[in-house]
Amino acid sequence: MKESVRHALRVTWARPEGRIGLIILAIIIVAALLLPPLLQDPRAQPDILNGSLRPPNSSHLLGTDHLSRDVFSRVVHGARVSLAVAAGAVALSITLGALIGLVAGYAGGWIDAGAMRLVDGAMAVPRLFLLLLIAAVMDHIPLTLLILAIGCTGWFGTSRLVRAEVLRIRQLEFVRSAEALGARRRRIIFRHLLPNVLGPLAVATTLAVGDVILLEAGLSFLGLGVQPPTPSWGGMILDAKPDIISAPWTSLAPGVAIVLTVLSVNLVGEALRDALDPRES
Amino acid sequence: MSTPILTVSDLVKHYHATGLFNRSAPPVRAVDGVSFEIGQGETLALVGESGCGKTSVGRTILRLQEPTSGKAVFEGQDVFALDHRALRPLRRRMQIIFQDPYGSLNPRMTIGDAIAEGLEIHRLAPKAEIPGRVAALLEEVGLDPGFATRYPHEFSGGQRQRIGIARALAVEPAFIVCDEPVSALDVSVQAQVLNLLMSLQQRRGLSYLFIAHDLAVVRQIAKRVAVMYLGRIVEIGPTEEVLERPRHPYTQALLSAVPEPNPSEQRDRIVLRGDLPSPSRPPSGCRFNTRCFHPARNARCTSEVPELRQLGASSAACHYASDSGAPI
Amino acid sequence: MSTLLKIENLRVSFSTAAGHSQPVDGVNLTVARGETLALVGESGCGKSLTSLAVLRLLPAPGRIDEGSRITLGDTDVLSLEGEALRKIRGRRIGMVFQDPMTSLNPVFTVGDQIAEGIRAHFPVSRREALQRAEARMVEVGIPDPRERLKAYPHQLSGGMRQRVMIAIALSAEPELLIADEPTTALDVTVQAQILEVLDRLRQARGMAVLLITHDLGIVAGRADRVAVMYAGRIVEEAPTAQLFAKPSHPYTRGLFDSIPRLTGPIRPLTPIKGMVPSATAWPQGCRFHPRCPEVMPVCTKEPPIASVEPEHWMRCWLGVSRDQC
């Protein structure tokens, strides 16, 4: 497993777009992890009367918002939230998708047919709708539930992808050999099928992260996701709506943050996919 | 022969079309009534061309696929009657090596792990001893024990076959199905692997079901041979006998088609008319009747299925084959 | 017999990020009109690349190096470009590949594919081309040719597909046919049929054949002359009967010793020890010397061409030291 991660990083780094993506992503992650103690409290509203909507200056790198909160600090803290949601939700959806894809692909028969019909049905419902439905019922979505909800609605495509790979691999004779040696199903799935499915799975994971960040930002922008006063990029843009023209930094800062993060993640995903292209091996 | 290690009776394996929309298609009758015995420490070769069902026979005996009907008794146990739990310990005793050196090893596993897998599954050695066992197996198949940490893509076809053999040997089987193990290898490498298989047989007392299409290879390694055509055995007997005095017309055609590497001893080739019929629509009666050139061929061949009957030292399934067979 | 194909000093090299290799390194071959020359060797010896080089169809990043010369009759093949090059492919040299399933386009009928070959070289209408295609199919022994014109490759058996490949290769009536392992993927009874077809056509048209194979049995039955290739070079060449009667190069002898026989006494097989070297690291001097049972100190130097008997030579020090003793 470690060997695979190292290999994946190496091949991504080898490509120019992958390198750029990795660098930007690394900066964002490091900033999100290490900067917060050094920054001003993102919820502090030191001087609403005079300090609001100040453009970028020496004491506020990216200016202040309508409640005189430091925008830079809010962006960095927002990164934490977005990345946490993304990591949690993607981990959940990839795990679910991989498990179901592996089992359906290997078991075949009615298990496979049943699972895939379920997936077909679920994919027919737009993901955002489902989340809005949940939000409608609950007024807003608490963070953990948000992660769960996004995670549980995001595994369908992955399961199909994994299943397709499994169907291809299980014809190969090393699987026959494991069966002949008396391996149980569990062993075959986790020792033989899963490691060979990691390639496409890795690509799907990185691309899913970008999707989730956008989804979370969108939900927060609609007021249904992360709730104030916890900073989030979507929420910041929502708050900045009235001041888009007069104080553009309040919406540009979180907006650019979203773009950069999703872009870097997509670049890494593309580089990985190109690296795994069979023509290249 | 004294108690055979494996007795197969009337093995049948049909493949049915899958999916909701083609249930009505006729099944592929890959194996349609095959019977034979293999003695302790003996090699029986199973030869035939594409579509004859020999690979299906090998896999079904090992229950890598479920048979449609028939019986296989291995070391006194009815292989097809066992439930999966009882089958597992039996799997140690019967193993398989494959034709394709490139698909038969998991590309994500070191070869050491691949060889050790059987040991782990059956708990044949404590963890600390496993590397030692793997090293011994690698040496036994003629590879450097230091290779255990490498991955399959670092090896040549011949080396991968050896690794596959080591993997099968790890569980100490009594019987190995060799499914065209040298067909995909270069000529000089074939010889290395064949020699290895033969010396392992000597040393460990292994029995082999050797599936192949190359008759010269079969002659080298097997004492007995069974010739298959469209799912049935058409001739079976001692190798020298079958190859020198083939009774069944198909065997005769097969032998005459083998190119002889000697310009001054070229054989007259019997060139078979027509194409191989589809295994889902085999001819009625004797399956070979559509291409048979035997002078006595008649309506009986189309209506009545010939059974294997003793003709001299071998048996052939032909209504009109003579006792002595035609020399090639 | 006059010489039709003459390959002189052919070198093919590949330069990739992984390194530089010369899988074909100084090959000299001639094929006379109407004769069959067999090029024998195992994987990695460069025989397929040699044949692709003749048609200038090397896969990227392969290149034919300076100093190589390939002439077909009077034409210098390596100097041709564009339309002139296209004209010899198919028309003067036909090629049959190993795997008929991947060599045929699965979405076109076989009739269309044969007709395409005809129309590429003759200015005929599609209907006329299909008629000629039908005639070609009769020639190669495909039953029910009119029906089969409309068949797709996957509807035909391996043997039928290979016959279609041959029909396509011969559709423009070439002077030379290059057949690269034409029967390796086929059953032995089908192989016999295909080789019969090739022989018949060769005789009827006076066509020359460059037959590439690893199967010494096919060589014994069908070839006039044999060239044995190892590690990018020809190591022995002779008329067929002479090569089989007196194989001289240790590699050739090793090959003969390692193949099981259908007739004669059953002897233990003596494999050639070691492995085929990789093109990125050819051994010094004689490329076979690390595996040779008769290796001598001088073998680390480039071996000369030594004559074994008239028309039979090999690239080996053993042929020379005897003379010098």
Structural write-up:
The complex is a heterotrimer of chains A (281), B (328) and C (325). Chain A has twelve helices and no strands. Chain A has 281 residues and is mostly helical. Chain B is built from ten helices and twelve strands. The model of chain B has no long low-confidence stretch (mean pLDDT 90). Chain C has 325 residues and is α/β, with parallel strands linked by helices. Chain C contains twelve helices and 13 strands. The two termini of chain C are 37 Å apart. Chain B binds chain C through residues 49-50, 156-158, 186-192, 194-195, 213-217, 219-220, 243, 253-266, 269, 271-272, 274-276, and chain C through 42-43, 143, 157-160, 187-193, 195-196, 214-221, 240-241, 244, 254-256, 258-263, 266, 268-272, 275-276.
Please describe the structure with a list of short key phrases separated by commas or semicolons.
heterotrimer, A: 281 residues, mainly alpha, 12 helices, B: 328 residues, alpha/beta, four-stranded antiparallel beta sheet, 10 helices, globular
What's this, in brief?
The complex is a heterotrimer of chains A (281), B (328) and C (325). With 328 residues, chain B is an alpha/beta fold.
Radius of gyration of chain A: 22 Å
Radius of gyration of chain C: 21 Å
Q: What separation lies between the terminal Cα atoms of chain A?
A: 19 Å
Structural class of chain A: mainly alpha
Overall, the morphology of chain A is elongated
Topology:
The complex is a heterotrimer of chains A (281), B (328) and C (325).
Chain A: H1 2-14, H2 16-34, H3 48-51, H4 71-107, H5 109-124, H6 127-138, H7 143-152, H8 156-169, H9 173-181, H10 185-221, H11 233-240, H12 249-276
Chain B: E1 6-15, E2 28-38, E3 43-47, H1 54-61, E4 69-74, E5 77-78, H2 84-91, E6 94-97, H3 111-121, H4 130-140, H5 157-169, E7 175-179, H6 187-204, E8 207-212, H7 215-221, E9 224-229, E10 232-238, H8 239-244, H9 249-257, H10 299-303, E11 309-311, E12 314-316
Parallel strand pairs in B: 3-8, 3-9, 6-7, 7-8
Antiparallel strand pairs in B: 1-2, 1-4, 4-5, 9-10, 10-12, 11-12
Chain C: E1 3-16, E2 19-32, E3 36-40, H1 47-54, E4 62-64, E5 69-72, E6 75-76, H2 82-88, E7 93-96, H3 100-103, H4 110-119, H5 126-139, H6 145-148, H7 158-170, E8 176-180, H8 188-205, E9 208-213, H9 216-222, E10 225-230, E11 233-239, H10 240-245, H11 250-258, E12 305-309, E13 312-315, H12 317-324
Parallel strand pairs in C: 3-9, 3-10, 7-8, 8-9
Antiparallel strand pairs in C: 1-2, 1-4, 1-5, 5-6, 10-11, 11-13, 12-13
Helix pairs in contact in C: 4-5, 4-7, 5-7, 7-8
